[in-house]
Amino acid sequence: CLGTGIRCEPADTVITTMNQCFLVGDVTVSQSGKQKTVPRGECVLDGVEWVYHDGVAYVFPGGERVYIANGPRSGTWWDINHTLSKDTVTRDVFTLWADHGKSPSNARYAYIVAPTRALPDIPKFAVSPMADILSNEPGLQAVRHRTAGVTGIAFYAPGRLVIEKDTVIEADKPCLLLLRETPERLEITASNPANVGMRLTVRIGNPAVPAAYKAVVFDLPEGFDAGKSITRMVER
Predict the structure, then answer these.
(1) What is the per-residue DSSP string for 206-221?
(2) Distance of CA 41 to CAs 26, 38, 67, 92, Å?
(3) Are 37 and 22 contacting, i.e. CB atoms less than 8 angstroms apart?
(4) Cβ atoms < 10 Å from Cβ of 42
């Protein structure tokens, strides 16, 4: 989960909520290399590598300041739907969030969600989560799953991404790309989330061998098929 270029001109506080759900059991965190159970209530923790609750881990590459609340919350269903009951309901709730401060100008966040994992497995997973954040900038966000050989890329402007030292991919227009690697070929899937037709040119190759760059053209559809993905194969 990536966020970048977060800004707010008014003097308001901006937060990113990673999850809010009913509290189930303990909340465990790893902070500056030390694992502990969070007491009931609300707290702010610096240098957090991961948070674990109800079988789900939230991993923060490089450590992060996080806010945690795990205790009773009260409200009424009438607050969100005036046809429902005004009776107050109180339940224990877990909330995890990041606070970007007042009037942020270029705030960002990055975390990895790892569901259905046992608590003893989390420290090892957090050290090597298999997902590499290649870019988290306003013009380009990208994540690569090393084991699967899959890279997801969001170009918000024409740009260039180094996937590995011998593999660079370029796009001449804003687009979404999904790159799947095999020993024989590269499978490139492209789409235009603006839902309009366009001709997109993607170049991929080894920066040390400029003559070996390959250009792949995508005529992304318009009309009823606007936004549809197109896949092309590139032989290695």
Answers:
(1) -TT-GGG-EEEEEEE-
(2) 12, 9, 11, 10
(3) no
(4) 12
Residue tagged 């937060």 (tokens): 15
- HSE (CB half, 13 Å, CA atoms) of 179? 30
**N- to C-terminal Cα distance for the chain?**
30
DSSP-derived secondary structure letter, 39: P
CB 98 within 8 A of CB 6: no
Half-sphere exposure of 181 (CA within 13 A, CB side): 16
Distance CA 152, CA 93 (A): 33
The tens digit of pLDDT for each residue in 157-215 reads 999 999 988 889 999 999 999 999 988 889 999 999 999 999 999 999 888 887 888 99
Radius of gyration of the chain (CA): 22
DSSP 3-state assignment of 229? coil
How remote is the C-alpha of 206 from its chain's centroid? 27
Give, as one character, the DSSP assignment of residue 234. E
Cα 219 from Cα 82, distance rounded (Å): 49
Per the DSSP assignment, residues forming a β-bridge with 80 are none
Q: Which helix (H) or strand (E) holds 123?
A: helix 122-127
Mean pLDDT of 95-109: 96
Residues 6+ apart with CB under 8 A from 164: none
Bridging pattern class, strands 41-53 and 27-31: antiparallel
